[in-house]
Amino acid sequence: MKYFLRMARSGRWARFVAVAGALFGAAACAVHAQPGGGAVALPPEVEATLARAKLPRESLSVLVTDAQGTARTPPRLAHRAQVPVNPASVMKLVTTYAALEQLGPAYVWNTPVYVQGTVQDGSLRGNVYIQGQGDPKLVMERLWLLMRRLQAQGIQVIVGDIVLDRTAFDVPEHDPGRFDGEPLRPYNAAPDALLLNYKSSVMTFVPDVPAGLARIQYDPPLAAVQRQPTVALAAAGTDCGDWRGALRADLADPAKVVFQGVYPAACGERVWPVAAADPRGFAARAVEGMWRELGGKLTGSVRDGKVPAGLKPAFVATSPALAEVVRDVNKYSNNVMAQHVFLTLALQKNGVATFDGAREALRHWWQARIGDAEMPQADNGAGLSRDARLTAQALARMLQVAWQSPVMPDLVASLPMSGVDGTLRRSQSRASAHLKTGSLRDVMAVAGYVHAASGRRYVLVAVINHANAGSARPVLDALVDWAARDQ
After folding, report:
1. Which CATH superfamily is domain 110-173+281-318 in?
2. What is the distance between the terminal CA atoms of the chain, rounded to a whole angstrom?
3. Residue 56 phi/psi, 5° resolution?
4. What are phi and psi of 141, to 5 degrees?
5. Per-residue pLDDT of the chain (487 residues; tens, 9 = 90+)
């Protein structure tokens, strides 16, 4: 007791309390954080949601840390943070941030259009060349504008061919059904230097009850494809239910669309996007279909080829800026757009886009910007992969670097807002957060920034790899809410 009295009189007591408090704070932090990133105690509410979802704690990898911290900043929570896991679409964060830094937010993709031959009285005697350069957002509306600009060259009739140059991308042949046996799902579309409308058609069903049918609008127009214009309505009182199944669609023939079932009027107007049954031939059908829709005539065909050396473009169609493209990629988790952004890293460096070149460009950037944090295995850059891997610790470190980057506003603005938009529109989390989501069979993940009640910003990375991952959404919501409750 005399020892403590002497300390108090000498002023050493205050210093003792300060040191003890710091040590106690560090010990309290260690309840949730462990330097090796190994298994430690999780917040009780997270443990409870894991149990309800029938998920073992070993299925979860998570790291929560200060967004303005460094690699040495002690995390608020670390659990299996150094274990490589499949991140699903959370991998898009790596691709989009790398692209924003290497290409710049204002980067655009150009699609040059060449006219070879002479134009007289509205007729071109020669060929038109459209050179794809990887524009990820050459959708129907922009294809319409491109064709209108071609007509503005004084061309109504092409006495020759329309030639599609797709040589800017050197990617392997792709089986759209290989990943999950769903070849007609748009998320399985493969990259293409001349990607038109994501290689997908959109069917809009509009019920006309007095006529007893639903009218079908198809976009974009496709050449040489028979499309059923209407389908009978289901019996009165039929609920919407599995309306796609009720249509009994036959979509396997690229030249024909048939519905053998009915459409429930209770569904109102519905939209069904479908990937092309013949992905390689889709661009030719779309180009010719749009040209003819605008009243243009073509005596030849639409075919693949290469722009002749020395030919100068008549005009160039320009994409939206990269900052806008990454918003589509991240908010709506568009796989083929993400792969285009990834491949563009190689295209800009090597003049031709390959996946190996993109992975090499990413490796050089990662080493220069992120340093010693373990390099992700990006595979195709989109997360639509069984081979992609990263650690929660490495991704969290990247997000810390991104928070200090000049392109941070563009990256954060591209992320879904919890409970507001994108893939987080239906989130049950009550937190204010910007987070990229990811989901595959056996994978559920979120990563991004959580805005805490204290005003601080935290990086959160949470990935679940388990057969029951489909039930993991409440676990991730609980983690986000826990991070946000920092006072």
Report:
1. D-Ala-D-Ala carboxypeptidase C, peptidase S13 (3.50.80.20)
2. 36
3. -70, 150
4. -60, -40
5. 333 334 443 444 344 333 334 333 333 333 344 443 444 579 999 999 999 999 999 999 999 999 999 999 999 999 999 999 999 999 999 999 999 999 999 999 999 999 999 999 999 999 999 999 999 999 999 999 999 999 999 999 999 999 999 999 999 999 999 999 999 999 999 999 999 999 999 999 999 999 999 999 999 999 999 999 999 999 999 999 999 999 999 999 999 999 999 999 999 999 999 999 999 999 999 999 999 999 999 999 999 999 999 999 999 999 999 999 999 999 999 999 999 999 999 999 999 999 999 999 999 999 999 999 999 999 999 999 999 999 999 999 999 999 999 999 999 999 999 999 999 998 988 889 999 999 999 999 999 999 999 999 999 999 999 999 999 999 999 999 999 998 6
For strands 200-208 and 270-275, give the pairing.
antiparallel
CATH 3.40.710.10 domain residues, the chain: 31-106+322-484
Q: What is the 3-state secondary structure (H, E, C) of 3-27?
A: HHHHHHHHCHHHHHHHHHHHHHHHH
Q: Count H helices and E strands in the chain, helices first.
A: 13, 19
Residues of the chain within CATH 3.50.80.20 domain(s) are 110-173+281-318
Residue 90 near residue 435, CB atoms below 8 Å? no
- CATH 3.40.710.10 is the classification of domain 31-106+322-484: yes
